Amino acid sequence: MLELFAQLLIGCVQSAAVGVPLPAQLAGLLDQLDNPDAGDLAPLGAWFRQLAATPEDELLRQLNSPPPELPEPLATVVDQLKDALG
Q: What does pTM read for this prediction?
């Protein structure tokens, strides 16, 4: 599951950096996170969606404020993305 979240995170950053909408498959995953059945993962869906809509020049700022619910392996991926963009 964490690999799926990492792919979603990277896809959101790529979409934002290029200024294109999320691919349908990733948008579908976000829709699942918006479902009340997602429970504690729902805040992650909102953050991913916000990240994908972030203008390229604000990506680093957005990556610097992940939700506290972000599982540790994803926090490491966020740090790697910040290093790559920085």
A: 0.83
CA separation for the pair 47, 66 (Å, rounded): 7
Which tens digits make up the pLDDT trace of 24-80? 999 998 998 888 888 878 888 889 999 999 998 999 899 998 888 777 888 888 888
Exposure class string for 24-45: b at 16+ Cβ within 10 A, else e: eebeebbeebeeeeeeebbebb
Helix, strand and coil content of the chain, in percent to the nearest 5, comes to 75, 0, 25
CB-based contact 61:78 (threshold 8 Å):
no
41-46 long-range Cβ contacts below 8 angstroms, 24+ apart: 41/69, 43/67, 43/69, 44/5, 44/69, 44/70
